[in-house]
Amino acid sequence: MQELIRLFIDIALLRRGPQDLPASPLLLALTVAGYFAVNFLVSLLMPPFKGPWVAHLCVDVVFMFVWYVLLLRAVRRPERFLQTTTAIYGFQAVLAPLLVASVALTRRFAPDSAWQFLVTLASLAILIWIIAATSHIVKAALDWTLPPSVALVILQTLAGNLLVLALFPIPTP
């Protein structure tokens, strides 16, 4: 287990890639469950926002899965699905505590405080890190160059956020 966590950390640090993971349906299922559990526990301790964050998490898990099924089929690389998706969920499970905590802290500080600025910068840095690591995985999975991989990951992020907003509109006062 520790070896697998170290591998996900190495993927997050761009030292390794999805090709270093076994193509195992069981490992994918365990990694998806781990991703959900880590996000759930951290969000339970530090809710990222008021409202249906559990529903947001469920949509996120399903959306990411469907995104990579469709993407890898569209580019005719379905054989890379298990490793790619395992890498995506695995490294994001490792970074989830940082991301959820930074989003939760961003909402807790007054907009004009120095802490708000620092926490927002930290959140932005974590988001950039996630985009970089995901792009590294996508680049390896699709045999693409880095710029289109980054663009695709940004598109995935925007599409996922738009889906959540469409399903759970922000209530107006």
Explain the layout of strands and helices.
Elements: H1 2-12, H2 25-45, H3 53-74, H4 81-108, H5 114-142, H6 146-167
Helix pairs in contact: 1-4, 2-3, 2-4, 3-6, 4-5, 5-6
General description of the model:
The protein has 173 residues and is mostly helical. It has helices at 2-12, 25-45, 53-74, 81-108, 114-142, 146-167. The mean pLDDT is 93. The chain is globular. The protein has one domain (2-167).
In short:
By secondary structure, this protein is mainly α. It contains six helices and no strands. Helices cover 77% and strands 0% of the residues.
List key phrases describing it:
single chain; 173 residues; mainly alpha; 6 helices; 0% strand
**Fraction of residues in β-strands:** under 5%
Helix content: over 70%
Roughly how many Å is the radius of gyration?
16 Å
Dominant shape:
globular
Major sheet summary line? none
